[in-house]
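Service request form, structural biology core

Requester: graduate student, group of Dr. S.
Request type: structure prediction, single chain
Budget code: on file
Notes: please return the result as structure tokens.

Sequence provided:
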Amino acid sequence: MLAAVDHVQLAAPPGSEDALRAYYADVLGMTEIPKPPVLAARGGCWFQAGAVQLHLGIETDFRPAKKAHPGLRVTEIEAYAARLTALGAQVTWDDNLPGHLRFYSEDPVGNRLEFLQPR
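Core staff response, request fulfilled:
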């Protein structure tokens, strides 16, 4: 039986780890967590905020998905969007989900991220 989502894996191109760290840690406010040594040898990086984990794995022929994305629940969404904007991240608001405030952003390699808060 399913109990919870353990993590979400996103792909990234080789050599993008520093840009990913700048976005996920500095802009989104997540903490980088160590990868097990056998997995660290493959490159990429992992991040956590509370119970949310995002894993960025290296993919040689990387192309960002245009539609697929993690949906990340946030609190104080307006302040969080202002933080992202102030730190140079694009924020695109979308009011098409009834009962929610939400916006989209992209990481430095083009992965789409959805941020939402129930009204």
